[in-house]
Amino acid sequence: MSYFDHLNSGFRRAAHSVAEGWQHLWHSASNAVTHFKSNPSNSDLSNSVRWGVLSCEMTDDSEAIQLKLEVPGIDEKHLHVDIQGQLLTISGEREFEHETKDKNYLLQERAYGSFSRQFMLPEKVDSEGAKASYKRGILSLYIPKQVAQESRKIPVQSGH
Predict the structure, then answer these.
(1) Looking at the domain covering 36-144, what would its CATH class be?
(2) Whole-angstrom Cα distance, residue 152 to residue 81?
(3) What is the pTM of this model?
(4) Extents of the domains making up the chain
(5) C-alpha 155: how far from its chain's center?
(6) Within its chain, how far is the Cα of 122 from the centroid?
(7) Which of 36, 90, 113, 153 has the fewest CB neighbours in a 10 Å radius?
(8) 97-121 pLDDT, tens digit each
(9) Cα–Cα distances in Å, from 101 out to 8, 22, 109?
């Protein structure tokens, strides 16, 4: 292998490694970054941020899966939690606050509108026993795990 072939091979490996790193970073970040869909009837939101970060922590113990999601500035009546099988969906809406009447925004980083985040739960859960609470901008979920059914022997009776 010539010097140039060796150099070219090294550049290809480095480029591939960088590309894999960016893909991993994008995949990890895309889980926390949430798209907010603005209401088209609200002209005040025409230049607003469309993306926001709703940071989450999910823990797992022997009895339940617990989740804490940062959703500041959202009224609890605008939060919705749905569990279908192992798919958890949290949706809601952050309403635009008309704080400036005769002023122009110099900076607007808060995202407004409706949003939805989905999480694949690591195992089957008892959605009937799930509980949700909201305090100081944190949505807390307690989702009990589905109790595994123990196997049992069924006696076979003779039929007539």
Answers:
(1) mainly beta
(2) 35
(3) 0.66
(4) 36-144
(5) 47
(6) 14
(7) 153
(8) 766 667 777 777 777 788 888 999 9
(9) 61, 43, 18
